[in-house]
Amino acid sequence: MQALLIIDVQNGLVDLTQCDDILTKIEQCIQTFQAQEKPIIFIQHFDEAQESVLHPTNKGAQIIERFQPYIEHLVIKKTPSAFYQTNLQELLANFGVEHVYITGFNTEFCCQFTAIAAYDRGFRTTFIEDATNTVNNADTYEMTGLDIRDFVGTVLHWSNVIEVLDMEEYLES
Predict the structure, then answer these.
(1) What global pTM score does this model have?
(2) Which of 60, 86, 90, 125 could form a disulfide with 118 if both were Cys (CB 3.0 to 4.6 A apart)?
(3) Of 103, 111, 116, 108, which is closest to residue 147 (Cα–Cα)?
(4) 146 in a domain, yes or no?
(5) pLDDT tens digits along 129-162
(6) DSSP state of 58
(7) Count of C-beta atoms within a 10 Å radius of residue 143
(8) Is residue 165 part of a domain?
(9) Residues near 41 by Cβ (< 8 Å), separated by ≥ 6?
């Protein structure tokens, strides 16, 4: 069984970027999984700091309205990994999931950490590179010309343990 993980597609992150194309790709994944009656699990990050846009009392912490109708399963996390101190592994086991697909925000943090944690827990893991996004850029990391999604995708691909696809490859498979 396969499951789709939609990581941190929350107002406070989405509002910081121009990402309509990314959201469309994620929604395509959602619709494909729905049509095949496979589990779709939303992951929501909450920060404890009151001033954080991702504090549970802030509007920024909520999953974007566009995706609200799709939420059937929701996992709350407080760290970059969707597995750390959450019920995600148990939920996946209940569905008999052996293969997870990773989409969402932020590519280089929560998506990457969750992909690695999934592999470490024995799941076949597919990272859909262009169905992830980040609020950061080359200036954030003081690395001129850095394409964060491509860099993370390349690192995960070179690991030879996490499959990395772009949306076109995903749709073909």
Answers:
(1) 0.88
(2) 125
(3) 108
(4) no
(5) 889 988 656 565 465 775 656 666 777 777 888 8
(6) S
(7) 12
(8) yes
(9) 3, 4, 5, 6, 73, 74, 75, 88, 91, 92
Q: Is 8 exposed, middle or buried (0-12, 13-18, 19+ CB in 10 A)?
A: buried
Roughly how many angstroms between the first and final C-alpha of the chain, as a whole number?
A: 15
Of the candidates 79, 56, 73, the one whose C-alpha atom is nearest the C-alpha of residue 10 is: 56
Q: DSSP string spanning 87-124?
A: SHHHHHHHHT--EEEEEEE-IIIIIHHHHHHHHHTT-E
* 145 is a domain residue: no
Euclidean distance between CA atoms 38 and 129, whole angstroms: 20
Tell me, yes or no, whether 50 lies in a domain. yes
For residues 6 and 103, the answer to whether their CB atoms sit within 8 Å is yes
- The pLDDT of residue 109 is 79
- Tokens encoding 9: 């597609």
Q: CATH number of the domain at 36, please.
A: 3.40.50.850
Domain residues for the domain of 19 are 9-139+153-172
Q: 1-49, pLDDT tens digit by residue?
A: 999 999 999 898 888 888 899 999 999 999 999 999 999 999 999 978 8
Structural domain total, the chain: 1
